[in-house]
Amino acid sequence: MLKVGDKASDFKLLNDKGEEVTLSQFQGKKEVILYFYPKDNTSGCTTEACSFRDHFPKFSSKNAVVFGISPDSVKSHQGFIQKQQLNFNLLSDPDNKVAEAYGAWGEKSMYGKKYMGILRTTFVIGKDGKVRKVFEKVKPEGHAEEVLNVL
């Protein structure tokens, strides 16, 4: 997993509009919040997304941009954004390469069965492209406020 002070891995992913987004396009301009979440339209992920939605104006006022990243398709993201009226981009990482590069992909356990999946993790990346803060094992409720407190 990337740690505070590490150079954040650049990436190229499609947003919910089918446009390419790279981390490097924000370097020197904005702080970047990357939150990795398992699946669109599930209870915890909806809670987390709506929290970022509700606090989005505060992120903007602090010159920060928010991206949610999951393995879901662009089409799935479009539906999730529309249903929850999200005001920020969701990025599609279908092969989990970005999640792996950041350390947000790993072994999970549910009902005694082990499987690989997204580890709910958030990274705050400074304008210099370095990791400023890592939130591991994120609890969706109130998480956006936690992130705002480090900006």
List the helices and strands and how they pair.
Elements: E1 12-15, E2 20-22, E3 31-36, H1 43-61, E4 64-70, H2 74-84, E5 89-92, H3 97-102, E6 105-110, E7 113-118, E8 121-125, E9 131-135, H4 143-148
Parallel strand pairs: 3-4, 4-5
Antiparallel strand pairs: 1-2, 1-5, 3-8, 6-7, 8-9
Tell me what the structure shows.
Helix content is 28%, strand content 30%. It contains four helices and nine strands, in the order βββαβαβαββββα. The strands form two sheets. Strands 2-1-5-4-3-8-9 form a seven-stranded mixed beta sheet, with helices on one face. Strands 6-7 form a two-stranded antiparallel sheet. A hairpin with a 2-residue loop joins β6 and β7 (113-118). The model has no long low-confidence stretch (mean pLDDT 96).
In short:
This protein has 151 residues and is α+β, with helices and mostly antiparallel strands.
Q: Which runs of at least 5 residues are low in confidence (pLDDT < 50)? A: none
* CATH top level assignment: Alpha Beta
**Proportion in helices:** 25-40%
Beta percentage is 25-35%
CATH topology: Glutaredoxin
Quantity of strands, as a count: 9
Relevant CATH superfamily: Glutaredoxin
CATH architecture: 3-Layer(aba) Sandwich
Query: What characteristic shape results from the CA principal axes?
Result: globular
Q: Give the SSE order as H and E letters.
A: EEEHEHEHEEEEH
Using only CA atoms, what is the Rg?
A: 14 Å
Order of adjacent strands in the largest pleated sheet: 2-1-5-4-3-8-9
Question: Average pLDDT across residues?
Answer: 96
> Major sheet, described briefly?
7 strands, mixed
State the end-to-end CA separation. Answer: 21 Å
Count of helices?
A: 4
Structurally, how many domains make up the residues?
1
